[in-house]
Amino acid sequence: MVRTLLRCAAVGFTVALSACGTPAWVADAPAPVLAALGCPESPDLLDFEPLFAYGERCGELLGARAFSERGAAVPASHQPVFYDGVSHGMRQPPADLDAWLAQVRSTPTHLQPFMHEAAIRAWTMQADGEPDLVVPWVADYVEKAGIADGFNGVRVGLQQSRGDDLAEALDLAARYPADWWPPLYEELGWRVGDRLWRDGPDPETLLPHVPEEARCAYVQGTLRGLTLRHISDGQTEWSAVEAVAQRIGGDCACAAWYGVGWAVALTSGRDSGRAEHTLDGIADLDGREHARDASRWALSGGNAPWSRPSKGPRQR
Fold it and tell me: How many Å is the maximal CA-CA distance in the chain?
C-alpha cells in the first residue's frame, strides 16, 4: 500500500482512487469514478464526482492527514471539492480538540468549514447519530471553534450512520432540535433521491416519517440526490427528474426545483455557463427558472441550500 501511495503521489493531483485502496462502493460507482481506479497516468479528476470520491476515500483511510498530505497536490480551484470529499470520509473525530483547531486555523479560510464538518461528521458517526450524544458535543465544538453551527457535519454523519433504514433515520431526525431539521431532512432526502435512481423506496411512502415543517427540505434533498445521479450517469433527457419533481412537489414545488439547481451547481465546476447549458434541457419552464435561481445562488457563494425560502409560488 505504501509503495502504491508513493508511486501515485508522484503524478501530483492525478493520484487515482486506488492510491487509497479499493473502496467497497466500486461495484456501484459511475463510469467517471471507475475510470480513475486503476491509477492511470492522467485520470480526469477535475470533474466533481471522481475528485469528490477520491477525497472521500483518502479521508477514510488517511483521516485528518488527507487534508495536508493530499490536498496540497490538488489545483487550488478544485481544492474545495477534494476537501468536501475528505470531510465525508474521515472516520475518527479529533482526539485532541485544541490541536485539531490549531490545524484548522492554519488552513486557508475558505477551506476551514470542510475541516469543521469532518470533525463533527466523524463524531456523529461514532455516536451512531444519537441526538443525546451528538447535540451537546456539537454545541461544545461550535463554541470552541467560534463557528455559527455544526449542521453540515451532523446531517452527513446522520445520513451515513443511519441512512440504510431511511424510515428509522427520518424518525430519529425528529428527535433533534427543530431548528436542526432543515439540514437533516434535506440530507436524508438526498439519500432517498440517490436510492430512487437505483430502485429505492418511493419518496412519497416516507412522507409520514417527515414532520410537516421539514417537508420542503426533504423534497429538495430528494431532487438533489436524484439529479446528481442523473448527471453522473450522463443523462441529458430530464423527463424522469421532472416527473418526480411534479409528483412530490406540491406546496414545495420551489424546493424541488431548488434541489435540481443545487445539484447542477455542485457538478458544474463553478462554471456558470456549463450550469446554464445543463439546465436548458428542462422542459418545465417554471421549474427551469426555479432551478436557475438556485444554481446562480450557489455559484455566487450563496448560503446552504436549506437556508433559501422554498415554499410557495415563484416571485416574479
Answer: 59
Other CB atoms within 10 Å distance of the CB of residue 95: 7
CA of residue 144 relative to chain centroid, distance: 25
pLDDT under 50: residue ranges of the chain: 1-19, 22-27, 32, 34-43, 309-316
* Residues 192 and 166: beta-carbon distance below 8 Å: yes
How many Å apart are CA 146 and CA 118, to the nearest integer? 16
pTM: 0.82
Q: In what helix (H) or strand (E) does residue 262 lie, and over which residues does it extend?
A: helix 253-266
3-state secondary structure 130-195: CHHHHHHHHHHHHHHHCCCCCHHHHHHHHHHHHCCCHHHHHHHHCCCCHHHHHHHHHHHHHHHHHH
Q: What is the pLDDT of residue 29?
A: 52
Q: Which amino acid is at 69?
A: E
Spatial distance between the Cα atoms of 91 and 63, rounded to a whole number of angstroms: 7
| Burial tier of 248 (Cβ tally within 10 Å: 0-12, 13-18, 19+) | buried
Domain boundaries defined on the chain: 1-91, 193-205+214-316
The pLDDT of residue 58 is 85
